[in-house]
Design goal:
Blueprint: H1 2-15, H2 28-49, H3 57-94, H4 106-143, E1 157-162, E2 168-175, E3 186-188
Antiparallel strand pairs: 1-2, 2-3
Helix pairs in contact: 2-3
């Protein structure tokens, strides 16, 4: 009998390593290995003392092993989903982490600068036209000429403005003045 126990012990040693692991390092395969080892021990008890000796023990062992298996599976699934989420997050924030990375391409920057310059030019033209009509109004008041409309004596100036998007708009500026007002307003036609 000692020879068979030594033989069983030598076979059990490599598989007993699953009992040396912590609960966090157990795998589903380890749980199956534990079930196999417990099953072998239960068979020895049945062989030595009869089936009645383990009748109440077997269902409890099976239940504990099933719970351990489910718990281990849930831990593995959570671990996998955590790893996947971390990988997705690393991929998403990889581009955002570099503060020196340019936000715009060179072409986009050129287009923005071009549009800004066009808008500045258009603003300058509109300011010049407003100044022209204000000067006319002041001149008419200084000479004592009755003014019904500032634009009666001069043709309406028109400017064509084009934006970088290719749209073209024509602005007509007219000065709306009356005899009693001293302010001039710019109207877009």
């Amino acid at each position: 009998m000692e020879a068979s126990e030594q033989r069983d012990a030598s076979h059990a040693k490599p598989t007993d390593s699953c009992f040396d692991k912590t609960f966090s390092s157990l795998t589903v395969d380890d749980v199956y290995e534990i079930a196999k080892l417990i099953g072998a021990d239960v068979e020895k008890l049945i062989d030595g003392y009869g089936k009645e000796s383990v009748v109440g023990l077997v269902p409890k062992i099976v239940k504990v092993l099933e719970l351990l298996e489910r718990y281990n599976l849930s831990i593995e699934q959570k671990s996998n989903s955590r790893r996947q989420a971390q990988a997705r997050e690393a991929n998403q924030t990889g581009d955002q982490k570099d503060p020196d990375q340019p936000c715009f391409t060179k072409k986009e920057v050129r287009d923005i600068i071009f549009e800004r310059n066009e808008l500045k030019t258009n603003l300058f033209l509109l300011q010049e036209e407003l100044n022209y009509y204000q000067r006319k109004l002041i001149k008419a008041k200084m000479l004592g000429i009755p003014v019904n409309e500032c634009s009666n004596r001069s043709p309406l100036k028109r400017h064509t403005l084009s934006s970088h998007r290719g749209h073209t708009a024509t602005l007509g500026c007219s000065c709306l003045c009356t005899v009693h007002t001293t302010s001039c307003t710019l109207a877009l036609v």
